[in-house]
Amino acid sequence: MVISCAQATGGFLPFLPQDAASDGGDPASEEVVSLISDDLAALLRAGTPDFWAALETDASLRACLDSYLQHCRFAVPHVKLFIIE
After folding, report:
1. CB–CB of 15/33 below 8 Å?
2. Domain coordinates in residue numbering, the chain
3. What is the 3-state secondary structure (H, E, C) of the chain?
4. Contact 39, 4 (CB under 8 A)
5. Cα–Cα distance, 55 to 80 (Å, whole number)
6. Dist CA 67 CA 57 (whole Å)
7. pLDDT at 7
8. What is the pTM (predicted TM-score) of this model?
9. How far apart are CA 48 and CA 21, in angstroms?
10. What is the pLDDT of residues 13-68, one digit of tens each?
11. Can you tell me the distance from the alpha carbon of 31 to that of 82, in angstroms, rounded to the nearest whole number?
12. Residue 6 and residue 12: Cα distance in Å, rounded?
């Protein structure tokens, strides 16, 4: 069984503005982004009950996702949002 950083430290790391702005230039930001990615991948591989339990109870997961959505630079120009009129 692989233990993720979130399991070892007791929480998910937040995604900070400097993590989005580094563009590969800051090794610390690269490590944080890698740890967040690994933790989220481990969560997606978890069983359904564990996945939903984490979403319901883990405040650090919600903070991680919220901070990512606030600070991430979306570099996917071909994705279009669907607007219902």
Report:
1. yes
2. 5-71
3. CCCCHHHHHCCCCCCCHHHHHCCCCCHHHHHHHHHHHHHHHHHHHCCHHHHHHHHHHCHHHHHHHHHHHHHCCCCCCCCCCCCCC
4. yes
5. 26
6. 17
7. 60
8. 0.70
9. 34
10. 888 888 777 666 778 888 888 888 899 999 999 899 999 999 899 999 999 999 88
11. 34
12. 5
Residue 17, C-beta contacts closer than 8 angstroms, at least 6 positions apart: 71
Gyration radius of the chain's alpha carbons: 15
How many Cα atoms sit within 13 Å of 79 on the Cβ side?
Answer: 4
Rounded Cα–Cα distance for residues 62 and 80 (Å): 25
Residue linked to tokens 């610390």: 28
How sure is the predictor about 5, in pLDDT bands with cuts at 50, 70 and 90? low
Q: Write out the H or E segment, with its range, that includes residue 12.
A: none
Q: Identify residue 1 by its one-letter amino acid code.
A: M
